[in-house]
Structure formats: C-alpha cells, structure tokens
Amino acid sequence: MRKTEPVPKPATSPNPPVMPGNTTPFDIHLRGGRVAFNGDDIFHDLDLTLPASSITCLLGPSGVGKSTLLRYLAGLVDGEAGGDIACSDGRPLLGRVAYMAQQDLLLPWRSVRENVVLGAVLRNERPDLARADALIAKVGLSDAAHLRPAELSGGMKQRAALARTLMEDRPVVLMDEPFSALDPLNRMRLQDLAARVLRGKTVLLVTHDPLEALRIGDRVHVLRGTPAVLSDAMLPAGSIPRDVTDPEILRHQAELLRQLGATAEELNRAEGTA
Ligand SMILES: Nc1ncnc2c1ncn2[C@@H]1O[C@H](COP(=O)(O)OP(=O)(O)OP(=O)(O)O)[C@@H](O)[C@H]1O
User: Fold this and answer.
1) What is the mean pLDDT of residues 25-43?
2) What pLDDT was estimated at residue 101?
3) Whole-angstrom distance between the N-terminal and C-terminal Cα of the chain?
4) Which residue has the least CA distance to atom 24 on ligand 1?
5) What's the pLDDT score for residue 262?
6) What pairing do the DSSP bridges indicate for beta strands 28-37 and 80-87?
7) Which of these ranges, 4-8, 166-170, 256-260, 263-267, has the smallest mean pLDDT?
8) N or C: lower Cβ tally within 10 Å for the chain?
9) What pLDDT sits at residue 104?
C-alpha cells in the first residue's frame, strides 16, 4: 500500500532545504484535499494526480482557488487544510518542491546572479556559482548577470526568477502564472524556454490562458465552482511546445473556454477570430 503523509504545516520559506535521497521520478497523488478560509471551503474532497516528469496546467476563473491549491501542495497555505498527499516513491513531498510565485520576487538590491543564489545564501550554504552561471546562461541572461532587477525588462526578470527556481534543483516545480505579466511574444518565448529547461521535472503551472496550457501542458485541468471541483485531465496530442494554430488545439481551446463558462456566442466569436 502506498504511504500517505498528512498535509504539511505552512512553511516559513517557500523553498525549505532540499531533502537528500534518490532522484528517481515519482508521481504525486492528492486525495481528499481540502482548504477552508474562515470556515468556507475553497475546495474539499479534491483528487489530483501529477504524473512524474510531466507538465500539468491548471486553469480556472479568478478567485476559484488555483493559487490556494498550489500553495497547499507547497505546504504554504495558512487556512484550515486536510487531505493526503502521497508520492509514489513513499517519501514526503515537502522539501522536494520549488515554488515560483506570480511576481518574480527578485530582491531589488541584488544582481541577477546574487538573486539566483539567494536560496543557498539564506540557508547559510556556500552557493555553487558555476552552476548558477550555467543556469543564467541557459535562460539567456549571461550578459545581464551583474544587473539589478530595476535594469531588467519584465521578460528578463521572469527569466532570472526561472533560473533561481531551477537553482533549487527540486524534482517538483509549482508555478503560479509565471508569464502573465509579459507581452505575447515574450510570453511565447518564455513558454518555450520553460518547456525546455523544466523537462524531466514534475510541474504544476497555473495560468489564465487556455492556449498557454495547450502549448506547453501534457495535461490540462479546469478548476471551477464553489467549493471548487477539478475537471478530468485533457491530454492534448503532439510534442511540446505545440502549434497553437493547429485545428485540434483550437478545438481543445473552445472546449476549455466552454468549461470556463464561455457562452455559445462568445465561442463563435473566438472561433471567428482564431
Ligand atoms: N489567506 C487567505 N485568507 C482568506 N481568504 C483567502 C486567503 N487566500 C486566498 N483566499 C481566498 O480564497 C479564494 C481563492 O483564492 P485564490 O488566490 O486561490 O484564487 P485564484 O483562483 O488563484 O485567483 P486568481 O486567478 O485571481 O489569482 C479567494 O476568494 C480568496 O479571497
């Protein structure tokens, strides 16, 4: 029988020290998840599986509880919480998760390189600068490694935040609308970059954009209602990043928009502009 663990208590840091041990990919199973604030359930009895080494995208209307679900999995929720989170390797999830928030949360007085190594510095560890520089190169910021956040564009800040997330080297990455503040072209570039650099990790990504989910998600769920329930996973075909002009992807988009509450008239309009 699979071992389960109680829902973790809120942690003081989103990325507590990494737990040593084997690095074999593992599935994550949430069963009977529940979070309530002031006695009101945001969701209850929620089941979700995150298969190893895959990108799962989570869509849903504003305020439905997407960030709450992400924070719950990261052990960061400050409401009432219940349910079981089990990993298929029988080890706890806590300590194996990197969390990337909606805003880049870079420290303004530190350079890109200093921000990337921040986790190690906060844990009083010696930062691996060679690895940091390799990751900074991977996200295309080598020439900007010495710059402070105020000197960076929005896309560059998100690249730096992505490098910092990867620097933590966790097998699981939880991302809350990581590209939402970017213009469409930069957003597409960051999606491609993320899909490439996150390969092999188990990712849960919250987004408001059905096409973003269909572009880089192996699986797409919609969270909706009060208390919120999860739709069955949509499994778009084809390799990532997908071509969003593909008619099959556009059909999936229409289905997701329908699940998000679009009316028939709105769907016809969306199809007309596709
Ligand atoms: N710490 C908290 N205390 C009380 N209520 C909270 C807390 N955090 C979230 N909520 C409430 O829980 C609900 C879900 O919020 P959440 O941020 O998870 O929604 P969301 O789907 O991520 O929204 P958005 O798409 O706008 O970011 C909202 O009604 C919000 O006000």
Assistant:
1) 95
2) 79
3) 48
4) 62
5) 72
6) antiparallel
7) 4-8
8) N
9) 67
User: If you average pLDDT over residues 235-259, what whole number do you get?
Assistant: 94
Tell how far the Cα of 67 is from the centroid of ligand 1, in angstroms: 7
Spatial separation of the C-alpha atoms in residues 129 and 195, rounded to whole Å: 24
Domain of 38?
A: 27-96+170-273
Instruction: Establish if 119 belongs to a structural domain.
Output: no
Omega before 127 cis (within 30°)? Answer: no
- The verdict on residue 178 lying in a domain is yes
Residue 172 one-letter amino acid:
V
Q: Residue 50 maps to which CATH number?
A: 3.40.50.300
Distance from the CA of 64 to the center of ligand 1, in angstroms? 7
Q: Whose CA is nearest to atom 16 of ligand 1?
A: 65
Residues within a 6 A CB radius of ligand 1: 37, 42, 60, 62-68, 78-79
What ipTM was estimated for this complex? Answer: 0.98
Using CB atoms within 10 Å of the CB of residue 25, give its burial: 0 to 12 exposed, 13 to 18 middle, 19+ buried: middle
pLDDT reported for residue 1: 37
Confidence (pLDDT) at 22: 56
Q: How many residues does the chain have?
A: 274
Ligand 1 pocket, mutate which of 34, 35, 37, 69 (most atoms under 8 A from CB): 37
Ligand 1 center to residue 217 CA distance, Å? Answer: 23
User: Domain count of the chain?
Assistant: 1
Residue 155's pLDDT band (cuts 50, 70, 90)? confident
Choose the residue to mutate in 68, 73, 77, 179 for probing ligand 1, maximizing ligand atoms within 8 Å of C-beta: 68
* 153 domain-assigned: no
By alpha-carbon position, which residue is closest to atom 14 of ligand 1? 65
Is 147 inside a domain boundary?
A: no
Of residues 121, 195, 198, the one with CA closest to residue 166: 198
